[in-house]
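Recall the central idea of this unit: under ordinary conditions, the amino acid sequence of a chain determines the structure it adopts. In this exercise we apply that idea directly, starting from the sequence alone.
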Amino acid sequence: MKRSFVAMSALIFVGACATEQAPTRAKNYADVVVERVRQAQAETRFMLRLNPSACECPPFEVKLGETWQRAEVLAADAEEPVVAALDTLMTARVEGRDRRVFAIEGRIEDTVFRCGRGGLYVSLVPTALVTAPTGSTTP
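Accordingly, the structure predicted from this sequence is:
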């Protein structure tokens, strides 16, 4: 009887440990960005704006969900209409006009990169300009 009590006590102790949930790791910013990129994989239309940084990070931001994320624009040909429109956007910003927002069709690459001072950015491959620049936006 004593042995069965000890064996049952051991089983209860082991069972109690097995049902305990492991602590969950809090998401860091990189995890959040990776999740946004994963969700954006199904999208084909994005909002893009120029917002130059003080470091070597790309000058554009793409809206992923409700958040603007720093982004590089990858284009195969500098003659593409999308690239020409972005050049216009950059020139307008340099000349002191309002920040402009483009609606662009394309895809988000599945990799998140670090730039300059450790900021995170994504890559957008544009396929078409949906709208010309719109009015100013707030950061």
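Residues 10-18 have pLDDT under 50 and may be disordered.
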